[in-house]
Specification:
The mean pLDDT is 86. The chain has 25 helices and 23 strands. The chain has a six-stranded mixed beta sheet with strand order 7-8-6-9-10-11.
């Protein structure tokens, strides 16, 4: 076997150098013969001696050299194997299926397995399933936790193609097998250090008192300073307990600086300052509530501050009495269990009306749109804005695609009516054609871009106005020229009715327009039973003075027999989950607007004693529509937000896709159970 082994490369050249020099001397000897015969003869004798010595050395030394080379190679391989076996880094060799073939001592120490462990790697590390092993990829890297340590796992694919081709055992020439080399990098100390460093990073927060002025007005003047001092003490003590710094920047605003670790503690306790501050009572009739906005994980301190400002705006826009934590890639909400206090002053409405007047006056066209599957509030508010545009002598259009039976009677008041333009109500396609550079888009009864009647208009129109009464979520209409979002308002029609009174010293709507807006208030307040305040009745009185007729509006919303029976059936089939949450299903068979019937059934379920919240599910147009209602004990908005929806504290909804009714019911139950366990619901 040793004779068959051939040396190649530089070692071969080195060993054959003397032979090559002898050949060169032979040619030189021939040349010397041509010059001098005696000199050539002398060199020939030397060459004979030279070649005799060279061949003798090659004959006797080559076996010795080959033995030494083989011995060295064998010892080198053993040393390599020993080094790999003694390597401090945990290392293992796996087959294609993930079965362990060979391990070194470090791997055995980490896993507490003896040499010869030949089971699947998944048994050791459940996260390393077969689909995560390198297949088409040459290398895979991932993190895993094992016992109290954290590792980075690197798995490298080692093809066996060359081995199979040169093997005398395997007959298959296209063998595609491979082994997997697995390395474990212990990064426990590094990860702990990074987490510790991250926990010490700066977080900036803003704390605003929601009802500072109203709370002060509810106590005697001599005791107001005491109320303020008690609130300051609560806030300062709370932040100080978290090793933070508080700075009062205005009479009802605080700025706080905290560590991220402290924010995590606040999240664990679910911002108990929100409830603690409500206990401040020195005779004030109104409990004090506050909103908290915190920004963290930004690239700079300035970015964290911007995050905190965005967070506090969201908290206030959603009605206050809650905390919002914003990072670069997420927004988390806490609290929001209190109903927002209605502001008695109309100063804000007057300011917004003046701004709306200025915006519309500078534009040629006004396009108005609400949300998909428009309801009475959405269409009624659009009609109110239409009247404002006409009063300012501007062309106006209302975007309405699908008219549901619930809003059909109101729409019929204007279609075919000679007092209004034939193109008063247009489709999305026509609206896109009408949108020009000098067009203002007014969005009513919605602030979520994805559920507007025509989302494309938000991109086409540079000037956008938002009028809405729903609490804001993470998805909002950005870059609005004017945004008037008031969660305390009962309906958008109420807001538009107030604005009408401040446009051009007051606009007198026509009787049909007043009926449309009055119907919006009626529907959203459930006949003035939900979310009604002083300003709600003032708006209704204004519309009544301008021709709204209660009897006429009532006739508009009478139901047919099938709809009434469907609603009654949904109420009768209701299941009471955990003693307080009514869940039922509304049939859509033969009903053109089953979602409206579902919402009405949800309202009816609240009349049952002990029911804190109701949920009606309706399978319509390939989606499961969920209508959620409550009176005052449960915030259904935060429940629906977990399902991808939103709304108000007492009125909310969501749309569930790619699910059946039983799956959707289970999803709602699981969400309720989880929120009860987390303390968000009682």
């Amino acid at each position: 076997m040793k004779k068959r082994i051939k040396i190649k490369g530089r070692l071969r050249i080195y060993l054959q150098a003397s032979l090559i020099l002898g050949i060169l001397l032979t040619f030189l000897n021939i040349a010397i013969y041509l010059l001098d015969f005696q000199s050539g003869l002398l060199l020939t004798c030397f060459l004979i001696f030279y070649f005799t010595v060279i061949f003798a050395l090659m004959f006797y030394n080559k076996p010795i050299i080959m033995n030494e080379l083989i011995s060295f190679a064998t010892q080198y391989g053993q040393i390599q194997k020993k080094l790999l076996r003694e390597l401090d880094m945990p290392y293992a060799l796996l087959d294609e299926s993930g079965k362990v073939i060979w391990t070194n001592r470090a791997f055995e120490t980490v896993t507490h397995k003896e040499k010869g462990y030949n089971r699947s790697i998944t048994n050791l590390f459940p996260v390393l399933t077969k689909d995560r092993l390198p297949g088409e990829e040459d290398e895979v890297q991932m993190d895993l936790e094992y016992e109290d340590s954290e590792f980075t796992v690197r798995m490298k694919r080692i093809p066996l193609t060359d081995m199979a081709a040169n093997s005398e055992i395997f007959q298959e020439t296209n063998y595609k097998g491979y082994l997997i080399a697995l390395y474990l990098y212990d990064e426990t100390a590094l990860k702990i250090a990074l987490r510790e460093n991250d926990n010490q990073s700066l977080a900036i927060g803003l704390i605003y008192l929601d009802n500072y002025e109203e709370a002060l007005e509810s106590v005697d003047e001599v005791r107001r300073s005491l109320l303020t001092a008690l609130i300051d003490r609560k806030v300062n003590k709370y932040v100080a307990s978290l090793d933070g710094i508080t700075k009062k920047i205005e009479k009802d605003k605080y700025m706080v600086i905290l560590r991220k670790e402290s924010v995590m503690h606040m999240e664990e306790t679910r911002f108990d300052l929100l409830e603690d501050v409500k206990t401040v009572n020195i005779g004030n009739e109104m409990a004090v509530t506050l909103s908290i906005g915190i920004g963290l994980d930004g690239l700079t301190y300035a970015q964290n501050y911007e995050f905190s400002r965005t967070a506090i705006d969201l908290a206030l826009g959603r009605g206050g009495d809650q905390a919002v934590v914003k990072t670069s890639d997420s927004i988390t909400y806490y609290g929001g269990k209190s109903q927002q206090v209605e502001k008695n002053t109309r100063v804000k409405a007057r300011v917004k009306a003046h701004a709306l007047n200025e915006i519309i006056s500078t534009k040629d066209k006004v396009i108005i749109m609400g949300h998909r599957l428009a309801d009475a509030d959405s269409f009624g508010a659009a009609v109110g804005v239409y009247r404002i545009a006409k009063a300012l002598s501007r062309r106006a259009y209302i975007v309405l695609n699908d008219v549901t039976t619930s809003v059909q009677p109101v729409v019929d008041l204007f279609r075919g009516n000679s007092d209004y333009d034939e193109d008063m109500i247009i489709s999305s396609a026509r609206a896109v054609e009408e949108a020009e550079s000098n067009t203002v888009l007014v969005v009513v009864d919605v602030n979520k871009p994805s559920i507007t009647e025509c989302p494309e208009l938000l991109r086409l129109c540079k000037s956008i106005v938002v009028l809405d009464h729903h609490r804001q979520g993470a998805e909002t209409i950005e870059n609005a020229t004017l945004s008037y979002v008031e969660p305390y308002a009962s309906s958008t029609c109420e807001m538009v009715a107030e604005i009408l009174q401040y446009i051009k010293d007051g606009i007198k709507p026509k009787a049909d327009e007043a009926d449309a807006m009055y119907s919006g208030i009626i529907i959203d307040t459930n006949n003035f039973m939900s979310k009604t305040g002083v300003r709600t009745f003032e708006a209704a009185a204004y519309l009544r003075r301008n021709g709204a007729d209660v009897t006429r509006v009532r006739k508009l919303f009478r139901e047919d027999v099938l709809e009434y029976k469907t609603k009654a059936d949904a109420v009768s089939q209701a299941e009471i989950h955990r003693g307080h949450y009514a869940i039922s299903v509304c049939s859509s068979e033969g009903i053109s607007s089953p979602t409206v019937i579902g919402a009405q059934a949800a309202n009816e379920l609240l009349n049952i004693k002990g029911v804190k919240a109701s949920f009606i599910l309706t399978d319509f147009q390939g989606k499961i529509y969920v209508s959620a209602r409550s009176i005052d004990e449960v915030n259904v908005q935060v429940i629906m937000e977990r399902l991808g929806g939103g709304g108000h504290m007492n009125i909310a909804g969501a749309q569930i896709e790619d699910a059946s009714i039983p799956e959707a019911v289970k999803l709602i139950k699981d969400t309720l159970n989880k929120m009860i366990e987390e303390g968000d619901l009682s």
